[in-house]
Amino acid sequence: MDRKDRQIVRELQKNGRLTNLELAERVNLSPSPCLRRLRNLEESGVIEGYAALVNQRAYGVPLTVFVNIALDKHAKDTVDGFERKVCEIDSILDCFMTTGDSDYLLRVVVADLEEYESFVRKQLHALPGIRSIDTRFAYSVVKNTNVYPNRD
Questions:
Q1: In whole angstroms, what is the distance from residue 58 CA to residue 41 CA?
Q2: Please, what are the domains in the chain?
Q3: Spatial CB neighbours of 88, under 8 Å, sequence gap ≥ 6
Q4: Which pTM does this prediction carry?
């Protein structure tokens, strides 16, 4: 990826509904080369797809919860079982394997505290191999972006 490709990606991260003409103007290219670059970015997997950004509160899941999970053992079957089950739970938007005291960091969205309690009791506790669950509630969003840093 060169500088122009990164410009195309950043503009699409800001607004994925740009027409090719609008995109070409923003990155200072003529439409044909812009479209050619865009197709190359899609075919190479740099651009994996397009999605709508949805207001979390308006959708009905205003509460963001960060959950640190520590496993009781790190055997392959325990890790694989945990990760497979996490991928099946819709309320878990992200799951990161981490270093430190915990093994995983989950980003969970729910409607309220009661729904989170139900989530913990019915879904988290059912996951295999969990030693501990540490919860942090986000009460404000200071920054939230989907635009990667400029690499120029």
A1: 32
A2: 3-43 (1.10.10.10), 56-138 (3.30.70.920)
A3: none
A4: 0.88
